[in-house]
Structures are given as structure tokens and as C-alpha cells.
Amino acid sequence: MDIKKYLQKKKETVDLALEKYFPNMPDSTGEGVLPTSLHKAIRYSLFAGGKRIRPILSMASFEAVGGEGDGILPFACALEMIHTYSLIHDDLPALDNDDYRRGQPTCHKVFGEAIGILAGDALLTEAFKLMTNQSIQGLFSPSHDRGWVLDVIHEIAQAAGMSGMVGGQVIDIESEGKEVGLPTLQYIHTHKTGAMIRVSVWAGAKLGGADEKTLKAFIRYGERIGLAFQIADDILNVEGKASRLGKKTGSDLSRGKATYPSLFGMEESKRRAKELVELAVTAIDSFGPEAEPLREIGWFILSREY
Amino acid sequence: MDIKKYLQKKKETVDLALEKYFPNMPDSTGEGVLPTSLHKAIRYSLFAGGKRIRPILSMASFEAVGGEGDGILPFACALEMIHTYSLIHDDLPALDNDDYRRGQPTCHKVFGEAIGILAGDALLTEAFKLMTNQSIQGLFSPSHDRGWVLDVIHEIAQAAGMSGMVGGQVIDIESEGKEVGLPTLQYIHTHKTGAMIRVSVWAGAKLGGADEKTLKAFIRYGERIGLAFQIADDILNVEGKASRLGKKTGSDLSRGKATYPSLFGMEESKRRAKELVELAVTAIDSFGPEAEPLREIGWFILSREY
Prior knowledge:
2 copies of one chain form a homodimer.
Chain A: H1 3-21, H2 36-46, H3 53-64, H4 73-90, E1 100-101, E2 104-105, H5 107-111, H6 113-131, H7 146-160, H8 165-175, H9 182-207, H10 212-239, H11 242-245, H12 251-254, H13 260-264, H14 266-283, H15 292-303
Helix pairs in contact in A: 1-3, 1-4, 2-6, 3-4, 3-9, 3-15, 4-6, 4-9, 7-9, 8-9, 9-10, 10-14, 10-15, 14-15
């Protein structure tokens, strides 16, 4: 299969759906009070060229277990909204203090810090609003229990919250400039990025109707792919072209961030990333061609050609 | 009824439940990586002496329509968690830049801006995690549809998000130092504080099993009480004792914030607040003694003896 074409097509589906949820707002209607700057800031970050890896993983996972229809789409979009909020807040001066992301000035550089903080808050909240929308109920087959939807939202909140992404971000910030060992680095990686990637894969399979055994296999895939993704990101931060990265390479090093390359060296990091993708693919090798996109995404993550 | 005793008792119930969700964490277990500072920051703000008005309104509303059991408690706590996150973020230097709240240094003054931002993010996320917890399902009678729970979470997200609280905060920030008229002031008040108070009342009634007619009456009560609450807050900001307020009085004025007193004068503001509470109480006058706490809370809000 042509994985690049697959990713492009799925990305377009996600972009279209996100565009529907956050349509362009007229500058002024001439009447009424509207937080237009907030809306602009949200759109600025949401449509800043993200590759939609998390939503695509959830959709690929949904389809791999035989999920049909558009029921996964609101969840896929919510995953991207949560990811985008985390990027906006991570870039803030009090956190990573990044002026550029994907080659564009960061949200707070364009709209100011207050709107940056509030745009992140809004995106996080709207993600949960989207996942609880009544219209979602009609998207699934009658065999779907509403309890499933609650469970999926719960797991996504768990992955995004203090025992997941936010917790990882806290340890990341507090570890800057310190010499940290593998347990800390692994905590950061599995929580800051790993948790949301893992839950994206799991949520897709769960909403697609997977049984417990399948869910376990997909979680193993998700965990391994998540860590491989972050190691690839660490490698890219050292080796990547600034033009492709959209920000300065070597920023992790200059900031004293613990990374796989800083702990294990470049060769060993590449070996581990490759091994993780192999293990991820192995976890789902009992599935047929319907799981091919998940396998291909694994290999694509290694290349990080984006 | 003794409303102060009632409020105290309900506050204790909420505090106990919140304590269960966010127990004190040991400083160090000697092993493992844990975001202890995040946990401390969350507890610091969550147990900083809040009066728990939103959760109490949801509980009073739940009981007024005949709701039984503890099913309302996780939602009551979630409402307080969302409120607390909004206070932490509002106090940040990029927003209101407040050093004190309820007589204590604000969260970011104690734990730093990064942890302040992340503690807010975590509280917001954990609120949704709490409301989707599976154990909640057992708290309601079988007549409760899980779809109700989804609807309630959806409405809470709506009230907290860009068309609610966050939207109001954006307009509030952008209106500072500008001469604004009543439409803008009303937008700020009904969105920044009003939306969450309104949804607290509505969620309690909905989860308590209220029919559509009752829900409509409770929404009218909630809207009026919400605006009265904010006007009383505006008045308190001018007239209140700093010792009681926990921060400098007159901060709205020095910051150029639009308030009811600045637009209508003190006497007219007091008259309007009183009128709103009267209208709120009228909206639920067909209910019997079971709605007495809601009526008493209305009059108590006017006094703002806290």
C-alpha cells in the first residue's frame, strides 16, 4: 500500500471535520459580542500543518477491527484538539518558551500569552464537548452501548491528565538541566507523548467493537509505537533539517533536555526505535490486511519524513 | 432553615469527596517518578477555602427535584474542579496577574507559572475523567439512562468552553481599560461566571430526574442567581473588607474592569441584584419546602457574607 497517500487522505478527512467544528468566523458581524480573537487563535494552531498522527492512528485502528461509519471521527478530532492544546501550552514562555513551531510563530507570539493560555483551555474543553455530543449516538450501530462512549472518554481523560500527558510535561519541565536517568526519561516519554498515542490506538479499536484480546494486542502496539515515535522525535531534534522541523535543531540539547540520543547515543537510539516498531508490528501480526495501515504507520514513524 | 449550617454541611461533603479524589501524596516514596509538585499545586488551590457554591447549587437542585443517593457528588466535585482551574489560570501574570486569592498567595506565586498552568490543565482534564468514571453508573437508579450522563457532561463542557466561561474571560481581558457598554458587561457576566452557575443548577436537576418543565424553571433560577452572584461580587470588590475578600478591594477599578457599580453606580447595582434574586426565587415558587435551600442560597448570595 502507498502509506503516504493513505496518510494524506486520512489527514484530509480529519481536516474537513475540524473545519466543520471550527469554521472561519466573520471578522465582525456589526453587532453582538464575540470572542473572535479566541476563535482565530484556535484556528491558527489547529490548522498550522499538523500531520494528524493521533487521529489517523485512531481511525486506522477503528477500521482494522472492522469498525464502520463515521463514529470514530469526532473522537479522532477530539484527540487532535487535545494534542493541539498541549502544544500551545507547551510553547508558552513559562514552559518551553518556543517562538516557532512548524515554521510559524507560536500561538502566543501571534495572539499574546493570555489568548494562548485561553485558546488551549478552550480546545481541551471543546474536545470533551465534541465527544459527548448527542449526534455521536447516531453514528454507531445499535450494538454500541453508551457506556462504551463514557469509557472511551474516561480513558482519553486519563491519558491527557495528571497521570498521563500533563504529568509527563511536569517531569519534563522539572528535569531540564538536570542529569536524569532512564527511569525519568521513560516516565517523560511514556506520559508526555506515549499516553495519548496509546489511547488513540485503543479508542479506535474499542469504538470499532474489538474484543478484550484484540484490545490487549492493540495496546501493546500503541505503547511500542508511542515510544518509537518519541525516540524518532528525539533523533530528529538532533539530525533533522531546520527547514523540515520548523524550529531550530538541537533545541533539546541547548535546553538540557534528557533525550534518548543524550542517554544512549545516536546509533543505539536508532536501533531501539527500530526494535520497538518491529515489536509493535509483531503485536498485531495475527491480523490480516485490514491492519496493514497500522503496520505501515509504524515503519513510516521510523523514517519521520515530515 | 439555617442556611449557614446547610452550606457548611454541604461544603464538608464536597470537601470530603474532593479529598478522596486528591488524597495527600507522600513527599517521596523513595522510588519511581511522580509529578508531586503538580499534585501539591492542585491540592493547594482546591483546598484554599473555596465556598463550594457551584457544587452546593448542583446538590441543592438535585435534592429539590427528588434526586436520591450520591450520584450527584462526582458532578458536584467536577464543577468545583473546573471552577478552581479557571481561578488558577485567571490569576496568571498574563491574565489578571493576581498575587493573592482568599488571603493566600496564588498558585503560580507558590509553585511557579509552569506548574500553575499545568495544574489548571490537569484539574480541567480530571473533572471530565471523574464525570466519566464507570463507578458513576452504579450511583443512579436504573431509570437513569447513560445518555443523560453524556448530555450533562456535554452541557458542562459547553458552559466551560469557548461559548461559555473561556469566551467570557477573553472578552473580560480584552475589555480592560476600555469604556464598555452594557452588552459587553452582560456578555462577560453571563459567560465568565453565569454559564457555570447556570449549568450547576441545571445539571443537578437533570441528574435528579427533573422533567422538561422543571428544568426550564431551574434554568431561569440559575440564570438570575448567576447574574446576581456576579453583581454582588462586583459590589464586594468595591465595598468589601480586604480581610474578608482575601485580596485588595478596588482591584477592578484600578484595573479598569467594567463592573455593575462602574456602569450603574452602587445603589442601582444593589437594587438590580436584589431584583434578580427575587426573580430567581419566583421562578421556583411552585416548588415546596424541598426547594427552600435554593431560595435561601439566593438571599445568602445577596449578603455575600463570605
